[in-house]
Amino acid sequence: MLKCSLEGAGGPEEEDNRWPPWLKPLLKEHFFVHCKFHVDSHKSECNMYCLDCTNGPLCSLCLAHHKDHRTIQIRRSSYHDVIRVNEIQKHLDISGIQTYVINSAKVVFLNERPQPRPGKGVTSTCKVCYRSLVDDSFRFCSLGCKIAGSSRGFEKGRKNLLMETEDSGSFSPSTPPITASSSCRIAKRRKGIPHRSPMG
Fold it and tell me: Fewest Cβ atoms closer than 10 Å to its Cβ: which of 59, 81, 123, 133?
């Protein structure tokens, strides 16, 4: 089987050809909706995808029309779409993407899952969405983050951001000077210590 790599370099034309033609459409799809062709069936949940047709999510009944095609099954974990490693690695190089074990199967997430802030003691994060990673051997938390993070535009933007940060010395904007309106806000404080309601 042909195995495509997510790595590479080149111009804008090569940027689009770096990944297999089915990958970006796959990441944009909404799975686990009812099939519009098999509405009356109880097996109409769309959790399959044809890599050859790339015409949207499929239900198990739709697969009859894709017998000789390459199809993959999408699964769910905590409301996020995942795919088993043993299924996707036949078609795509997933090196650098963190794998997770869910229901005793190794999976990768399709799209980013940003965290509000990294946990304490976290030394490795996703290069795109900054989600905590297990160790430094992984660079990305999902297929979508690997696509975004390995694009030339992402690397250029990141270098420019680092240069701007070094020039200014800080990511955050400077503190505005205290004005009459802001000093009024400082003067308005709580009325006093909050009291509990009497028990009884």
Answer: 123
Residues in Cβ contact with 27 at an 8 Å cutoff, skipping those fewer than 6 apart: 110, 111, 143, 144, 147
pLDDT of 43 reads 78
The one-character DSSP state at 193 is -
Per-residue pLDDT tens digits for 79-113 = 899 999 999 999 999 999 999 999 999 999 999 98
Sheet order of strands, 75-77 included? 75-77, 80-84, 105-109, 100-102
Question: 88 and 72 in contact (C-beta within 8 Å)?
Answer: yes
Tell me: the pLDDT tens digits for 21-67? 999 999 999 999 998 888 888 878 999 999 999 889 999 898 888 98
pLDDT of residue 139 exceeding 70? yes
Q: Are 111 and 77 in contact (CB under 8 A)?
A: no
CA proximity to 82, closest of 98, 58, 69: 98
Type of residue at 100: Y
Q: What is the DSSP string of 70-132?
A: -EEE-EEETTEEEEEHHHHTTTB--TTBPPEEETTEEEEESS----SSPPTT---B-TTT--B
| Residue 88 tokens, joined | 């996707």
What single-letter amino acid sits at 87? E
Does this model's pTM top 0.85? My answer is no
